[in-house]
Every structure is written in C-alpha cells, then in structure tokens.
C-alpha cells in the first residue's frame, strides 16, 4: 500500500552497527499523518472521566511532541485534581501512570510530583502489592501490568526499590504474566520496559547491584521478548490489536535480544494503520496506547531531555470529528440471547435497539429479573468493568472475574464498547484468570 524508501546499502550497514543500547524502531511516514490525525481527534474530542485516562492521553501527546498547549493544560489539570481528590484511593499502577504523564517533558508539572511526594506514595503502594503477594498466594493487589508500571516509574524517577527483589518477582515463570492460561502480551511488554530501565540504570552505575542481578535481568528480558514474539500473528499484530502498541515499544528497546528476521516491524505497522482506518482505536485510551509506538517512541523516553520536542512536522488536527463506526441504521430492534453462567446457566432473550452494546443487554436483562441478572459495574480507564453479578464479586486475591463471551469466545472489548448483533449468544461467566 505504501512505498517505503529503500535504505541504501551504506545506511543499512550503519544501521546494523548502531550500538545495542539504541532502539530499533519503525515509524509512520508523513503520508500516513491522516491515520495519526484520526487517533488524535479521538483523544482530543473525548470527555475524560478518569484521571488515569487523562494521564494516558497526556503522556501519549507529550511523548509524540503534540503542540496543542490548551489541551495539554486541561489534561494536566484533570490529572492533578484526580490526585488531590483521591490520592489514597488510586491503585499503584494508576498513580504510576499519573507520575509518568506529569513527569514527561520537564514541565512545571514535575514540581507537583515532588510537592505531593508522589514517588514515596508510589513506593508505599508498590510495597503493599508485594506484601499482598506474600499473604495471598503470590497474587498482587492489582495485577502484574500495574506492578510493572510501578517498577518502571520507580526506576525512571529514581525511587527506592530492591533490584534483587524485583529481579526475583519478574521471573518469566511467574503465574502473574498469564491471564486465563494465556501469556498476556500487555503485561509482558510492560515488564520488558521496566526491566530494560533497570538494566540501563545498572549499566550506567545509577543504581548498584551485583553481577548476578544484572545477569538475571538480562535472562528475564530475553525470555519475555521470546514470549512476546511467540504471540505474533500472521498479519503482524502481537497478542491482539490492543496489546500491539505496547509490544512494539518493548521490541523497540530490546532489539539486541532478537534477530532482525524474527520481527517485521513494517508489517505490524501497516496492519495497525489499516485497523486505525477501520476505527479499531475509537476510545481515547486505546488511541493513547498505540500512538507513541507509531512515532517510534517508548515510555522509556520519558526520562530523556529531548523526549518532548516534536519531530519535523506538527500534526494538523482536523476539526471534524470522525464519523462513528456504527452505521446509523433507522431505529430498529434486535434480539439476542443472554446467559449468566456460574455453575448453573441462567438464560433469557433480550430485545434492544440495534447499535446497542453488551452493557445495554445486561441492563435490559436486569429489568426482566433483578435477582438472576442483577449486576454492579465500576468505571475503569477502558470503560465500564463488571464487578459482580447475582451479588457474586470478582476478587483479585482469588483471581476470579466476570468474563464476557460471544458464541463461546471471549471478547476483546469491554461491555461498554462491544456492539451486539441480532441473534447473537452472549454470556457472562464466573471465571478464574
Ligand atoms: N491496567 C490494568 O490494570 C489492566 C491490565 C490488563 C493487562 C489490560 C487488559 C491491558 C492494558 N493495556 O491496560 C488487563 N486487561 C487485566 C490485568 C485484566 C484483569 C483485571 C483484574 C486485575 N487483577 O486487576 C482481568 C480480570 C483478567 C481482566 N483484565 C478482565 C477483562 C475482561 C473484563 C470483563 C468485565 N468484567 O467487565 C475483558 C473484557 C475480557 C473478557 N472477555 O471478559 C478484558 N479484560 C479486556 C477485553 C481487556 C482489553 C480491553 C480492550 C478494549 N478495547 O476494551 C485489554 C486492553 C485489557 C484492558 N483488558 Co482486561 C487487553 C487486550 O485486549 N489487549 C492499568 C490501569 C492503570 O489502566
């Protein structure tokens, strides 16, 4: 579809000789700005309900050198007030993401981090994750994606943590890398970023540790990179569409751990661009998590002085809002089967307007029978998250959750985004991850 400049041989040779500390990236060319613009308008035209969501978007915009000062100011304000209003309620990874966003680019936001002692709060929250693992069969309070974010941020912002302890925690055999028996690419990628930050600090002498720790960290990175690459699909996506951006970041910073033939970055990039044009990244956090990789940036760039100067051209955000992907059919109703599965299955048929999402079906079913289909929901940065059905509550200490499926297959979107189809069989299962 797109023409790519052939690197002349000399350039190619030079490229192969780049010292291993540098990243190998592939980036979009100017002719694809249109795709990036659609991501940017998803991020800029949304209403932000959670501080973490704003933080993710702010981080992304700062990393790629977006010029829109007013928007960045607004986001930064939202992020700071979410800390002032509910610091103690934030989970460890939420706080880590907030620090990452505020600390990117050496803006006055940096002072906020230190005035509010956010690094020492994060140290405490990270400590609580570790303690919970000690008392609850190795299960953290949240999950390993967040624990990895914690370590990444403690490393980037010179917080205190034990290198030996972290090296042990991040052993690739740890069950927390797996969700429903599947290696979680999102989680593995975040761990590679955290471990790479630690490795760099050790090599630069910023932190002290024994030879053994460095060796262990190296082995973990190697093994995690292998696992990430093993999740590469034929079309180049890694894991699924929503984990690909983070996987790309991990592969950018670890290019000396795999052969050039093992990953065709360009193919991955092309597939992502096609998916963007089909509206796959239509929620702000999804757009925010893919954008840095498309510009060859990673979360490790946060510590660099140059991380926030924009590249050649600045984006030209079109003022028009992209059309919603759901075609505005004339109002008509569809009917779907809906079941709650615990040990017994409870089923019903529900009629909803076409274009409805999974959550609408659950609400209709709840109206039919509150006892059987009653549920509770919480806001998350990815949209609504189901916390209980029939009063049965998901519990991280027991690794239980409510899994959503269609036609027996787990969905890769949440209840607030998955648009249901006529005649579909939807289920929500009491599951273990
Ligand atoms: N973020 C987090 O703490 C979440 C980390 C994450 C790995 C995350 C995916 C990746 C990311 N980039 O943020 C993650 N999901 C986790 C850890 C979990 C578990 C959360 C519980 C815990 N211990 O903290 C759990 C329970 C296994 C889980 N995700 C469940 C679900 C399902 C939610 C259903 C419900 N009850 O509402 C669901 C819908 C899968 C299903 N079929 O049931 C699900 N997750 C999905 C689809 C996703 C993707 C969202 C994609 C989208 N477009 O909405 C995801 C990006 C994500 C969010 N989960 Co989880 C993974 C993917 O597809 N690549 C840090 C915080 C600061 O933001």
TrEMBL record:
One MF term in the entry's GO annotations: cobalamin binding
Cellular component GO terms held in the UniProt record: extracellular space
Key word NAD present: no
Keywords: Cobalt, Cobalt transport, Disulfide bond, Ion transport, Secreted, Signal, Transport
Signal peptide per UniProt: 1-23
InterPro entries tied to this protein: Cbl-bd_prot, Cobalamin_Transport, Transcobalamin-like_C
Domain Transcobalamin-like C-terminal as annotated: residue spans: 355-431
Positions that bind cyanocob(III)alamin: 142-146, 186, 240, 289, 385-386, 411, 433
Compartments in which it is found: Secreted
A Pfam family per the record: Cobalamin_bind
GO terms classed as biological process: cobalamin transport; cobalt ion transport
Cysteine-cysteine disulfides: 26-265, 105-308, 155-197
Main location as per UniProt: secreted
Family statement drawn from the similarity comment of this UniProt entry: Belongs to the eukaryotic cobalamin transport proteins family.
PANTHER family reported in the protein's UniProt record: TRANSCOBALAMIN-1 (PTHR10559:SF13), TRANSCOBALAMIN-1/GASTRIC INTRINSIC FACTOR (PTHR10559)
This protein's name: Transcobalamin 1
Organism for this UniProt entry: Oryctolagus cuniculus
Gene name in the database record: TCN1
């Amino acid at each position: 579809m797109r023409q790519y400049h052939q690197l002349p041989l000399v350039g190619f040779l030079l490229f192969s000789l780049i010292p291993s500390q540098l990243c190998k990236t592939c980036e979009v060319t100017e002719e694809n700005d249109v795709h990036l613009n659609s991501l940017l308008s998803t991020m800029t035209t949304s209403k932000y309900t959670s501080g973490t969501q704003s933080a993710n978007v702010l981080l992304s915009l700062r990393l790629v050198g977006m010029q829109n000062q007013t928007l960045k100011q607004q986001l930064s304000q939202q992020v700071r007030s979410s800390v002032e209003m509910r610091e103690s309620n934030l989970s460890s990874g939420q706080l880590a993401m907030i620090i990452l966003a505020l600390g990117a680019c050496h803006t006055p936001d940096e002072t906020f981090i230190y005035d509010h002692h956010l690094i020492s709060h994060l140290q405490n929250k990270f400590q609580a994750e570790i303690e919970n693992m000690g008392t609850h069969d190795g299960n953290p309070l949240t999950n390993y994606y967040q624990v990895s974010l914690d370590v990444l941020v403690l490393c980037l912002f010179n917080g205190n943590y034990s290198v030996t302890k972290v090296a042990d925690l991040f052993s690739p055999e740890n069950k927390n890398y797996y969700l429903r028996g599947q290696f979680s690419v999102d989680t593995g990628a975040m761990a590679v970023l955290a471990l790479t930050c630690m490795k760099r600090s050790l090599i630069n002498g910023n932190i002290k540790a024994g030879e053994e720790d460095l060796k262990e960290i190296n082995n973990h990175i190697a093994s995690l990179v292998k696992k990430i690459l093993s999740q590469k699909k034929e079309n180049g996506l890694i894991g699924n569409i929503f984990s690909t951006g983070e996987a790309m970041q991990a592969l950018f910073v670890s290019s000396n751990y795999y052969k050039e033939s093992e990953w065709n970055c360009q193919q991955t990039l092309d597939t992502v661009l096609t998916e963007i044009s089909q509206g796959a990244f239509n929620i702000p956090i999804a757009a925010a998590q893919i954008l840095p990789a498309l510009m060859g940036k990673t979360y490790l760039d946060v510590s660099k002085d140059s991380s926030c100067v924009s590249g050649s051209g600045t984006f030209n955000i079109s003022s028009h809002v992209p059309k919603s992907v759901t075609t505005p059919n004339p109002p008509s109703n569809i009917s779907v089967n809906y079941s709650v599965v615990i040990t017994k299955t409870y089923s019903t048929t529900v009629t909803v307007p076409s274009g409805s999402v999974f959550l609408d079906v659950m609400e209709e079913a709840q109206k039919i029978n509150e006892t059987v289909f009653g549920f509770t929901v919480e806001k998350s940065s990815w949209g609504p998250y189901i916390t209980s059905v029939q009063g049965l509550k998901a519990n991280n200490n027991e690794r239980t959750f409510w899994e959503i499926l269609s036609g027996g297959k787990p969905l890769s979107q949440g209840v607030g985004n998955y648009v249901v189809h006529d005649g579909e069989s939807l289920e929500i299962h009491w599951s273990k991850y």
